[in-house]
Amino acid sequence: MDPEVSKYASQYLIAMIVGTYFEAQFDLSRRWLIQMKATWVPMISQLICTILHGFWSYLFIVEWQLHVYGAGLAMALSNIILVVMTTLL
Hints:
Shape: elongated
Helix content: over 70%
Structural class: mainly alpha
């Protein structure tokens, strides 16, 4: 196993670990809303978060130079926003 790859993988996973909980929460909410025939809620939430994710990625990776750790933070933040938006809509 390449030590450099292991280092980058651990940085990403550490940054993403909080987002994993929210990813599961969003998936549960999405599935429930689809069963309730409210498919527009997760669709709008994902559309907005997809656009915001590009901004977060640029901000964390390029502007703040967090590199791989920043990619994990951007993903975690996008998952948190997905849960909040789905709950509010």
